Amino acid sequence: MTLIAEPTAESATDTSRPPRYYLPEDFTVTDWAAIEPFFQELQHREVYTAAELERWLLDRSELESVLSEDLAWRYIRMTCDTQDNGRVEAFQYFVNEVEPQVAPYDHALNEKMLASPHLSGLDEGRYGVFLRSVRRASEIYRVENIPLKTDISTKQQQYAATVGAMNVVLDGQELTLPQAADRLKNPDRAVRETAWRAIQARRLQDSKSLDVLFTELVGLRHHVAQNAGFSNFRDYMFAALGRFDYTPQDCFNFHQAIRETVVPLIDDFDLERRQDLSLPALRPWDLDVDPSGQPPLRPFGTGEELLEKTITVFQNLDSYLGDCLRTMRQMGHLDLESRKGKAPGGYNYPLDETGVPFIFMNATSSLRDVVTMLHEGGHAVHSFLTRGLPLGADKHPPSEVAELASMSMELMSMDQWHVFFPDAKDLRRAKKTHLESVLETFPWVATIDKFQHWVYENPGHTEAERHGRWAEIFDEFNQRTVDWNGLEAFKPYLWQKQLHLYEVPFYYIEYAMAQLGAIAVWRNFRQNPTEGLAAYKRALALGYTAPIGQIYAAAGIRFDFSTDYLRTLADFIREEMAAL
């Protein structure tokens, strides 16, 4: 088998599904009875040579890719309309009726492979990273966790439904929370305050039920960890996420580095903002408005315009990048605009069989939406660059790599932002705002990550203890010059807006690690755009066939989150801001 180091531009325009070699061409997922015979065949197939073991691996990967894509579409359709009971039921059917049946076979197939006398005949350089992950998965598997994980998946979906149903009425108009948040950029301070209070009050209405839901999730997750022989869920997740390259203590050190290096810079930004706005004190609703007093930037009007301009930006950078988004548009693999009943947030969902992902987001027409589209577009490019890799597992690198793809795209694309902001003053505002937000990423990530460590190190905590600890951590890293007087009732619940805490626990510190890497990629790009972009693509095309450090090295950067490295790259951002 041959790795694809550099896909051609033509591969991004291919809308056909790759041929199947194991499953029938017309096979579709209906029920478990239709799926199980293939797992049984894999489990009982005799494997006599290393070549046959490779063929067995490819057949298993094809089956897993088909199931993965079927689940993906069920999730996508559900999040596009959380109020459609049919879509919700279709997703829940897979979670409740298919996934629990797959899990024992998945473990049995891992054991079969690891016990094969021909395992040593596989190329270690080609399969080493994959086998490392399989061994770890085998170590932590427990059959008694299958029903617990089903319960967890169901409860996680409750979060999306609850938040997706949140709306507020402002000036007689019903708005989603992302739409209402646009008013926080309004130069009229009264408009901003009204919007901020309405958003927080709406969140507060469901705060108790979301607290109960989170407590239930913490309990279930702790039970899963104990079943697998871990003292807490944090340690279990470090194993489950395949964190071979760093430890919890490294995370704590990173938190401290952020506290010492970046938080003072954000304090300076906030003090400058207060002075520019001529305010006696900053309030929470003053943090998103342009400090010059100008109206919010309006880089696009509709989702179609957002997509068309993003395609132009990508095309100007590299024709292959533009082709990726054109193919997604042709296949209908985008849902961009915010609307009632749509789940919150944004994502790029890889589709393992076709190799053409789906982008979901809640655009309203802000700069943040542009950045989100570019971010998810970076993930999409990553999916295209890995679509030719033989094993499905190779297409799913850890988040430290996946987020490098997206965050680097945000920064490298800035040379083309005139497509969205033809006015030079608007362009400068947009770039300055985004670079500030790049640095602001670090304190918020540290806040969420430190909070998660505490939550799962202390699984028996009370809601009151959780609220108190959250407020302490929040104050350590965020808004230290902002006046929260009279708003204390809202602060204990701010963490509930972070869907990662409910849906993908411990998936967050990677954003800060990848943000550091993305700044380094951008620095290389600024010095040599052609080679910087080529190195970026070469690194992403590796998928997960190499350890994180080697993938970063292929991009011409270091996997390093030390205080010195953080300070060096933060200084580079400050220099770029000063040059605007």
Automatic annotation (TrEMBL):
**Alphabetical keyword list:** Hydrolase, Metal-binding, Metalloprotease, Protease, Zinc
List the InterPro entries: Pept_M3A_M3B, Pept_M3A_M3B_dom, Pept_M3B_oligopep-rel
- Report if keyword Zinc is assigned: yes
Q: Give cofactor(s), names only.
A: Zn(2+)
KW Zinc (keyword) present:
yes
The record's listing under SUPFAM superfamilies reads: Metalloproteases ('zincins'), catalytic domain (SSF55486)
Q: Which GO terms describe its molecular function?
A: metal ion binding; metalloendopeptidase activity
Q: Which domain of life is it from?
A: Bacteria
Cofactor binding, note field: Binds 1 zinc ion.
Q: In its UniProt record, which GO terms are filed under biological process?
A: peptide metabolic process; proteolysis
Residue span, Peptidase M3A/M3B catalytic domain:
185-569
Family, per the entry?
Answer: Belongs to the peptidase M3 family.
Q: Which NCBIfam families match?
A: M3_not_pepF
Q: What is this protein called?
A: Oligoendopeptidase F
Species source reads: Hymenobacter lapidarius
